[in-house]
User: Fold these one by one.
Assistant:
Number 1:
Amino acid sequence: MSELIEPFRDLLRKDVLWSWSIDCDSAFNKLKNILTEMTTLSNYNAKDNFTIQCDASEKALGCCLLQNNRPVYYASRCMSDTEQMYAQVEKEMLSIVFACKKFHKLIYGQSIVEIFTDHQPLISVMKKEINKIPNNRLKRMRLKLMIYNTDVKYCPGKYMYIADLLSRNFIQRVEMTEENLSDVVHTINEVEVKFKNNKIEQFREETNKDNNLSKILKYLDIGWPNKITEYGDIKHYFKIKNELIKENEIIYYENRIIVSKELRKYVIEKLHETHIGITKTLKKRKQIFYWPGMSSDIKNFVEKCEICKKFSVSKTKEPLLQHKIHELPFQKIGIDIAEVERSNYLVVMDYYSRWLEVLSIENKTSEAII
């Protein structure tokens, strides 16, 4: 645009003779075409379908409401200092909340609100049940979106140029957002992990000290690389990167805390402190903690537990009983009693022919059966 209006600037310079040249005429016509093309806003039509594009940069949010691929409404705002410290997935979710609030009068009550984001990890968050989102900030924002029938989809950033531009070319003014949930009523049930404050702080410290987890914290802030050349835990976490969320310097996978190597023994001891078996210990950990190879670590720990060895009851498997092969029908039969709708039946099966008989009986006494 600035290049197009260059001939007009020449006309406004001091001590320059005003002359409408061919260049001015050409620039004028091009400007008229631009102002009448798709880059300008079109009128909203309640009968047409619409889409919303949302994006979040380092310091701002941007969104656009479109109908038939033409913009109807632009919106952007600068984030507060606190919001700028959010993880990227939280910023992207905030951009969706901001868009829905801005376009509320146009989208409220619609059968479907199609929203596009270029942040793929957000898709898995939107698909989760609210009580399975460990991040409380994301959970609160999801609650705010419940009044809309949202369908959030992924779109590569190169096709999200409108929202991307708005989030980077913003007005330097912070718009305050209302954080209360007075307009939403919902019940949340979640697994609660009870630790003392000093132990929670230890989880944070060890997460930052751990070589692998400290890298993941960094990736969750600035974004994951396209490829990982490292092996071990980092490669494993890369495969589930879309499911990882950071909150208060602790990393969560789904609704479980990812434990650093330093605290894994403590966690296993905590899970097994009542000396329950391997199966119950594994079931208990699935609700709370996660790390690669956790099942194997727990199994090895429980098998080596001296107290469990001392007091556990041996579960020796009984060998299968072999039956003699009979030569004639009804040399040997098997019987059982079945009850259906308060009526008693005797089920008889011949071992030789596999013939089945079902006989009605008045009661379950031995006399009636014989």
Note: The chain has four domains: 1-36, 50-168, 197-311, 333-368.
Number 2:
Amino acid sequence: GKLDRGTSSSSNADDDVFHPLGSNRETIIARFISCGFSMSNLDAASLRKAVAKVACTRRLSAKEPFDEHAALALNLDCYAVACAFGGSNNDGDVRCLLPWLDQSLNNSSSTIKIATIADSSQDKLVGDLYGRIYTHLYNKYPAIRKMVKSALKADLMADTTNDSSAIQNRFRARGGEFWIAIDMESSEVVGCIGVRQRKTKECEDQDDKGGPSSPFSVVEYEVQRLAVDDKHRGKGIGKRLLYAVYEYSLRQGILEKKKKKKGVSVKLLAVTPEALVNANNLYNAFGFIKEESFEGGLTMNVYCKTTMI
């Protein structure tokens, strides 16, 4: 709506466009995705960071500090700026509009591409990657060797008699998808990740004040087979692979919401050995919460990230 002296007048515009985006990052991302944007073309920053960077870029500075600076900084920290772009935007234009970005918004300078797995030749490359990256842990953790061998004989097993990807077919049959990270210069698969749907259940959210309950659906997905080549660690590949899974789960949740015409909670789960320090750190940095740990030949940590749509 249009603001006038502290009051708001109604607008005939689409509610999906002219509407408060949300009070947290996950809600804002979900709204952008529901409008057709990709997570690779989204960015958000605190308003203080955005203003400070713009002021620095434009060489704007106060002649002397004053008390209002502190008050302004605290106030700006209560807000954020979120931007979404189409995939065809020029990187220079994006950086001009968003000077606070530390790197290219769409990673156009990177030689690593994230894509769904395409054929049986890539199945073999995934098997080779997954079979070698954990070998240094086999002696200390025999259970990891067993887990890898089991994966290679099950959902990561290649089928050379067919041109299509057997890995993709298996994950899609379970309501999921499988992605790979490809080095475009060498055509080498340097990372992979999969997701499958676990279950959908119906719940009711009881009003704290005793009002009527609100029905909603909980859609659970599980991250599987996350792996990044040791030679390519530290390039943000694992984070980009997780973004692919997160965006996929949100899109499925949005479809569920449109179909059932009620709220949907997307619950993304991940189970990883505590011995895989980098994987645990990645889940924590991505906003997953560790729910529990259990013993299965070695200590396994269960992480969860929930987004209400």
Note: Residues 2-97 form one domain.
Number 3:
Amino acid sequence: MAVVRPREPAGQHHAVHPASHRSDPREPPLLRHGVDPVTGTPTNPLARTEPSVSMMRMARLADAAPGPPPAPHYAETVPKFTAWACVFLTDQDGRAVQLHATYSPSHPWQFPGGTMDDGEEPLQTALRECHEETGLMVKGPLRLLASVFTPPGGSWPYGTVGWVFDGGFLTPEEIRSITLDAEEHDDVRVLAVEDWQGLMPAQDFARLEAVMSARATGTAQQITWGWGDV
């Protein structure tokens, strides 16, 4: 329906007076103060906004919050080690079985063993390495005889940790069946402890004596071992 307004008399004009500015009650309060309520940015380029005291306090607390460093960062700050494991074998008379290494003039005679592979446990490493280096499947008691710590030295930038397990007593047939990996070892000998002394560096011989003592007494040894003249 159309609305009909009365016509004004001729010669009369409807006066229009500018209305005084009043703020729209529907206008958001923050907008009236020059700040967009959604983005928080000033709508007036001359307007200034200051962070609240509570926000600044929260930021300071977050920066100073105690707690451990992230695991990857912490891992970079601690010493690094490589690990190895080996098997101590003797004949039926208790004479030590050792292999002559082609790759280490400073440690020529060694127990069958080697470096731990990713995902292995120490005993698994010892059994695998013994089989690879001698062809033997060890059936001994496999109890721990010694743990060996070596600090960084020589050309190796890390320390090492190692474990020596009791591989038991080999029969003459088992000793004769030993098959060496020519890339790592070129001889195998079975000797009484006193006969080994002249063939080994002093610290290597001391380790042999400690391992033999551990088997005899049932008490595992803790050994610190050096690199020698690598």
Note: Residues 106 and 230 are 6 Å apart (CA to CA).
Number 4:
Amino acid sequence: MFRNATLFDLKRISANPVFCDPALWIFPGHHNNIHPNPETLTMKRITTFIVVALYLALASSVFAQKDSIRWTPGRCIQYAINHSSNINIIESVLRTDSLMVLQAKAERFPNISAGSDYNYSWVSSTSNSTSSNTENISASVSANLTLFNGHQISLNIRRNLLQMASDSMNLEYNYLILAENIVTYYLQSLYSLEELKINEEQLQLATEQTKIAETKLELQDIIRTDYLQIAADEANNNLQLVQAQNQFNSSRLNLNKLMQLSTDSVVLLIPPEEWHTQTNQSVNSFDSIWQLALNSRPELKMAQINIGIKEQDLAISKANRLPNLSARVSSGWNQDLLSTTATGRINASAGLSLTIPIFNNKQTSTNIALSKIYLENEKTSYESSVYNLKISIVELIQDIVASQAELESASVQLNLAIESYNAALESFSIGKLQTIELLMQKTQLNTARHNVLKAKYNLILSEIILQLYTNSWTFIN
């Protein structure tokens, strides 16, 4: 299946949020005569400015478009369905199936044909120098009707109707697959965008902290080691911002490709709080969820219909052992144009034709044996589809339960990490904590924030896919 449990296990981006004003940073009174290189600091300022400017341009293109279309997942799905080449191909197959049904039904009617003929001939004799000429015209109408052929006509009609139903279920299945892919890439883009915002905020704070540290280093209030640790933290945040921006660009490009949009088109993402409602289904009631999925999933219906198609194929193969009975009726008119009489001759005939198969090089028996094998394969395929669906639902339920627990635990962890970081910052401000220890507290805070974000989007994705499996998700445009 498309969805897996580690869907949002993207490249690890350890955001470093700081929940305080950078001006509150106070460093212990260390002294060092080594000062930073002004050229290096200038290049760092320029690099930081460029990265922040790129982010602001990107963020403005995503969020600041008041006149842009609200691209909710439902609208994205509808747009993708209307522009998907794969969907168009399946729809054309359905139109072909409809024509095949009409053709199969037409086999019940007789085949009628008409024809006419004109003939002129002459015969010359070399012995007495005489010749005779003839000129005539004729017309005929004939009809053939199959009276019995082992019910193959009815079997073919039913088979074509089943094939059309199977392709219709295949179309619905592709709708759902497309919807799952759209929702996944949409949430990936939102996830990456939130990571991008976190890293951008963190870089701005780290830049301010580095400026303060630079000033204190010039005043010899801190040692160079402390300054380098803070500067390295800024560089790390700079790298994380670039990685987050690349991840967001990749996710948005994947969404555009799936929707058949141009690469420069901007999809205005809508936060999940505006279009997603938590599922009301109890994840503990597996039986009810399973029954909903069993009755609604198109791939199971398609597998059941395919079994019926193979049963019809087997019946058609067996029907080739039975005799064929057909009736024919014909009527003709013939006129000799050189005759002295103006009247033509009319003739009519009717008859029955019976064909009994006796031996055809084992073609019929071979087709019957193959049809039985294909039928068993379809039954096995159906059982496999049922099993895979059941496993997928169990995994989805487990993912929802796990994501809910992770979100609750991560939220508690985040609150404690904020409190711990604030306490560490207070200790650091009075010189009771080293710089490296404070940065470790920041890392723990960043990890907690990342875990909350990851659990949030994993939960949303699992809930939506479960709703798609049970045909209970409402497309909000």
Note: The first helix runs from residue 38 to 63.
